[in-house]
Amino acid sequence: MTGETIVIKGVDKHAYRKLKSKAAKEGLTMGAAASKAFIDWSSEQALLARRVSDTRKMQAASIAMDKIRSKQKIRSDRSSERVIREWRDRRR
Length: 92
What we know:
Layout: H1 13-26, H2 30-53, H3 55-70, H4 80-91
Helix pairs in contact: 1-2
């Protein structure tokens, strides 16, 4: 893969160092690693844009979730606040 020299201003130093380290570990040049990162990021963004813009699928998913929730029994002996507080306490 050959390309031209490109200068990118304003790159976060930490992000650059992480990419450089990972590229070295995988035996890639910075150009190859950056190109892969650009391609992966733009592909991911395209997928997200398509996924979010399909309102019919979102509505169908919302209806399905509501049906599932309506079948759940409400437990008065289990407080969501208490469960969250216990979870937080275990993390400490």
